[in-house]
Write a structure and sequence with these properties.
Helix content: over 70%
Shape: globular
Number of domains: 1
Number of helices: 6
Order of helices and strands: HHHHHH
Mean pLDDT: 85
Oligomer: single chain
Radius of gyration: 15 Å
Structural class: mainly alpha
Distance between the termini: 28 Å
Strand content: under 5%
């Protein structure tokens, strides 16, 4: 369980890092923030799947595995259908960024994806923090980054 606690701590730090970057209001920084956040959401899901045997015989790094994990945690009532759809939508935004010219990532995209990351942390790992605690952790990341 020690390894799990350490991993959850690292996941939380990555969410805080994405929020710290998002606060800069610069598009390249928002891309970095979204990339970090998207990678963190994938880690949140894949670590849960690996530690709960949800992907027996399935390649854990594939896009199909990502959707399969979402289906399985939805079946476990850890997320609802619209949350699953939103996670997939935000996951695909980075693909759009690479395809389209002049594609800007708005702050609200990061804010909404962070809410989903927090939901996953709460429901999959029983990790919850108050708004004040999140703000303190974000400020700590800013000071140490």
């Amino acid at each position: 369980m020690y390894g799990c606690a350490l991993t959850v701590k690292e996941m939380v730090e990555q969410v805080c890092l994405s929020l710290a970057l998002r606060g800069s209001n610069r598009d390249p920084t928002n891309r970095f923030a979204l990339t970090i956040l998207n990678n963190t959401v994938q880690i949140i899901l894949k670590f849960y799947a690996a530690s709960h045997g949800l992907l027996k015989g399935t390649e854990i790094n594939s896009q199909e595995a990502f959707v399969s994990i979402l289906d399985k945690i939805k079946d476990q009532n850890k997320i609802v259908n619209y949350e699953k759809k939103d996670i997939i939508k935000y996951n695909k935004i980075l693909d759009e960024f690479h395809i389209k010219d002049n594609f800007k990532i708005e702050d609200n995209v990061i804010d909404e994806y962070v809410i989903l990351a927090k939901i996953l942390l709460a429901r999959l790992y029983d990790y919850r923090a108050s708004k004040i605690e999140w703000e303190k952790m974000i400020e700590d990341v800013r000071r140490h980054a």
